[in-house]
Amino acid sequence: MATRPPADPALAHWGLREAPFMLDADPRFVFEREDHREGLARILFGVTQIGGIVLVTGDIGCGKTMLTSTLVRLLDGSGLRAARISNPPRTGAALLGEIVDALDVAAPGRTAARRAAALRVAMAGGRARGERLVLVIDEAQRLDRRALDEVRMMTNPDDGPGAPVVLLGQPELADRVAALAQVDQRVAVRYHMAGMGADEVDAYIGHRTRIAGADRPIFSERASIAVHGVTDGVPRLVNLTCANALFVAAGRGEQVVSADTVRDVAEDRAHPAGGR
Fold first, then answer.
1. CB 3.0–4.6 Å: which of 8, 10, 66, 200 could bond 196 by disulfide?
2. How many other β-carbons are positioned within 10 Å of the β-carbon of residue 87?
3. Which of 87, 159, 96, 161 is nearest to 123 (CA)?
4. pTM of whole model > 0.90?
5. Where in the sequence is the domain holding 233, given as residue range(s)?
6. Number of folded domains that form the chain
7. Is 221 a domain residue?
């Protein structure tokens, strides 16, 4: 007979049913950040009204993957078929290989030219059925010059039906694109995601703890301000800091997470015991 795992005493201390700050992209915990709303609006504008390349950049942990998941859900059933590539290979031929695989397209050969031709045929067939492809590439800073040029050619309607492409990546992606004039000229929309402001961090913490079962605020106002101060509002760092602060504060018997506990957690992360 299977046994249930023991209840987490830290979560029980706060009256939580589940952990509120898991790093997994659980749609139940999605918080509609202003940055995300603006990013989604710009992406959808570029994809549906302009075409070409939509370029979205942001630091590690700022929520690009969550934004990508939300975008794919929004496009589903809209007549736009999203092909999502995460952690793409560096080279053009390998990238095209992943795209044709994602679309279940049979490519007669392993060269970039043959794969690109097969993809064009598939895109034309989709257009005939009233379906338009949108390519979404996360972590696109990994792409080399040739792969970025293959992306550019995918948006080119002169060689058959083109597809809008959404490139999401770390800030260096913007520099890589800017260095390739032909690719840069295809960028129709650019957007950079920043961290959350202090008020947004406070709302984010409240939202996630309520979803997890809290019936009261469990971070003090000063604690929320401290979380913003030590994370710059980067969602992944907010989650890590808050998860550790809940654990430490429960061990200390706090009834509300204090700013001192948040700062102690941040200090421990910056200078772990026994570290060198």
1. 200
2. 10
3. 161
4. no
5. 196-270
6. 2
7. yes
